[in-house]
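Consider the following assembly input.
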Amino acid sequence: MRKRSLLLPLCAVLLLGLTACSSSSSSPDTTVVTPAPDATTLAYTDPLGSGWRLVKDGTSTSTRLVLNLVGPSGLKTRGAGFNLQASAGVKFTTFDSGLPINDTGVYQLHMAGSTDPNDLQAITGGVKKGNILSVGLYQKDRDQAAQDSGVALCQISIALDSTVKLSSGARITLSVLKAKVIPEDIGSVTDDLWTLDKKMRMADISVAVGTLIAQ
Amino acid sequence: MRAALRGANGASDLVYHVDARTGAILRIEDRMKHQVAPATGTGMGTYSGAVEIPTSLMADGTYALFDTTRGTRPNPYLSNFTPDESGWGATGMQAWYEEHDAAGVATGNAWLFQSNPVNTWGDGQPFTAWGQEGGANGQSAGVDAMHGMAGAWDFFLNVMGRNGMDGQGTTVFAQVLETGSYNRDNASWSPWYNGLFLGAGSWPGNPNGLSALSEFDVVAHEMTHGVTSSTVEFTNAPGYEEAGLDEATSDFFAQMAKAYAGRAAEDDPAKVPATGADWRVGYQAGHGTPIRWMDRPSKDQRSPDGWYDGLLYLDGHYSSGPLNRALYFLAHGASTTAGADDFSVYMPQGMTGIGNDKAAHIWFVTVTERLYSGNTGTVTYAEARKQAIEAAKNLYGFGWDCPESIAVENAFGAVNVGRAYGEAPRTQVLFADWRDNDWIVRNHFSDTGYGHKQYLPMGVAVQPKITVLNNADTSVTWSTGGPSVYNTGLTPGMLGYVTGGGVINADGAWVTPLEKGWFAITATSKADPRQFAEGRAFIINMDADGDNQQDAVDLGPIAFSWYLTQAVNPAHSMFNAPIVDDADVAAFVDAMRSTWWNK
């Protein structure tokens, strides 16, 4: 807010300067500067390709974009996490759970065979400094089978940040800074230590992001 | 099949267990009990000096530290042992000793102090005779134990009308000269054994150790645990204010029992004398430095003199401080002399005590009739104050305010538990709302820590929140450390405050330390510096995937190491534990939520 209040008078001074120049010009034409209207909605275009990507979910509205993390069809994984940075003007919002990540139910987050509703699940998220969303959801029990990644594995959501005005047409940058999954093969409890140590690794993935425009 | 044949056989009354098929005698049991006769021994205790102690003349003509006049029901643990020809049985207060070799190494056996041809016990000297624990030197600890047990038993029976610790007359026994890392410098009550285990002490070999733990008020303290463990059933663990209530209750009744045991012949045997308590616990076992001071608990540099939010983090032997002092004030009063041991900064106007006997009755009713935890950990200092006031009203005021109930209010007010009678509400600093009330709570089996705590990642800036009540000036002074942290250099007079543990700014913004473990920060009211609160957090390193970033992605390695019993990377455990379980998941999720959740 303070930045804007300082900048607006400066713009006004520049505009006055231009007007003064114009008035001294021999040309009778004057230029009318019409500022772009403030953006009120979000428009997202899905990325191309069939690899890891963030695609728009059908539940999205004009003001709240819900993105699904989708992986390559046929690739089995046990959980995923990523850090997504957004430029100023939008904010990451939460779901009914209070978390900024929504479990779509593909990954089996509970203990194998458990029907305990209080069974602690490995799902978390937050927004770090720099408008970086950090989320992850993982199967904690290796007895749960790995899941096919070619479906919506989890969701995040984005909305306009009312504290920052964006002009209609402004492009919002979304950058995946880091993304990892738990691969299907993380070793078996019966493996030797060397094999286990070698296989117990997160796998880096590259997540494609579409184009986000404020309108 | 069993058949019994009875008949006189000298001094015995024998029961024959006979195999009905073969007629073979399987076992002969001597049930002749009436030959054991109560006696009074001459004891010379290490601490109690020359005292009369209850003993018995046994069936074999020798004496034992065995008192058939105290205890009408058999001790369930001792009942596992087969009665011998001496006439010993599991019913009747008794003192045992742990057997050692000449080097002081426990053999694993324990014996009753018995087979003494004369009824004279102990040499009054500190114990040194390893390997001969049953001899005169070792008997001195047994004398002290019998003296203390009988004194406490009689106090509860004659003053409070309670028959034994459990109220059922179940036999209590003590086992003295205990060794081992847990027991040597310790004394404990075991509800499973319905008995006491009293350490041999490690002093003077260990200059920081204690002498034998058989001193009267130590014994009576443990006996009182027998009462509370069968009545209010306090949870005695850090993380619960009950722990302090439990320990202080034992300290207090030990003083009352000591005063009672020292009463004059002309004193009313149903009352606690007005004098005789020294308000020190384990003065002799501490060879001149008490284990605890009740008049001013902070003299130990650990126990606080008053309640504050965060007191529950302390071990019960230290969080007992405020109640110990309140009960001292209740009985003894508080002075107006600033700096005196009986002066309270919370009540500089002082107060008049109501004496030992009334204080004892009020607190006994409070813990045996009005408070009940059932090991739930839910009883707080505030609730104890409330119930003690009601107990006083019922005992002495026909349910109305009376001098005794007002004294209770003042005594608790003098240790900052509520306000004194007629006083305006006090400034209160509360840490209960540390980032939007998202303290993690005990929520699963492996979460064995505190019920009022917070996990935070290392090396990040967090903004703790504090609540200041009853004062328009809500400003506080922030500092790192707190009364519960004692691991590094103490600041004299500051109850164990330490520096370190990250960096905290004037506005409370705290950059957490770059190391794992418990850390504390404290907020002190600027308007009333007597009021402060300690918040405690367990700092974890969330960077489980080793990329020098702490983020949600790091939950992955914790997940795939979950309950893996081999090849666990230590970085995957938030506690450096050999196994990763839900405690690690909970700690990680809580740290994430506390620090980076959207608000």
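Chain A has one domain: 36-214. Ask yourself how this observation constrains the way the partners meet.
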